Amino acid sequence: MRRDSPIFVFSKRKGVGLVGLGTLQATDVVESGFFRRVDLERPDEGRACIFFAHDGPSAESLRAEFIFT
Description:
Blueprint: E1 7-12, E2 15-20, E3 25-31, E4 35-42, E5 46-53, H1 59-66
Antiparallel strand pairs: 1-2, 3-4, 4-5
């Protein structure tokens, strides 16, 4: 799929959903016993987050992918 900005595609109860990530900025990667969470923020609209299974991408790779310093 080609778009101007990155998207996050996910499965939901009745099909597939997607969220445009172009205006969201990652603020942190949080690790817990069951999942890894990427905290996202859109200055004018509030916060969001993406959850990844603990056996999915490492926290380091998520930081490298989402957090640009």
